[in-house]
Amino acid sequence: MRIIGDELERPVPVNLLVFTSEELEEYLPKSTFLREIIGKGKVIYDKRCRV
């Protein structure tokens, strides 16, 4: 997991959590926090999606 954000300008404070598919698969069963953000959070970028 990497926390990204120091290089980004943004109007409000945010923490960007970046996981590989393998990392998410490993951590998801162990973390109520991750399960909550997966259920309630918003994906702002997905490399697989083409708009």
Overview of this protein structure:
- By secondary structure, the chain is an alpha+beta fold.
- It has a domain at 18-51.
- Helices cover 31% and strands 12% of the residues.
- It has helices spanning 21-27, 32-40; strands at residues 2-4, 16-18.
- The chain has a two-stranded antiparallel ribbon with strand order 1-2.
Q: Describe the oligomeric state of these chains in a short phrase.
A: single chain
Question: Which residues form runs of ≥5 with pLDDT under 50?
Answer: none
Q: Give the amount of beta strand, in percent.
A: 5-15%
Q: Describe the biggest sheet?
A: 2 strands, antiparallel
**Principal-axis shape:** globular
Secondary-structure-based class equals: alpha+beta
Mean pLDDT over the full residue set: 77
Distance between the termini: 26 Å
List the helices and strands and how they pair.
Elements: E1 2-4, E2 16-18, H1 21-27, H2 32-40
Short description:
With about 50 residues, the protein is an alpha+beta fold. The protein contains 2 helices and 2 strands. The chain has a two-stranded antiparallel ribbon.
Tags for this entry?
51 residues; alpha+beta; 12% strand
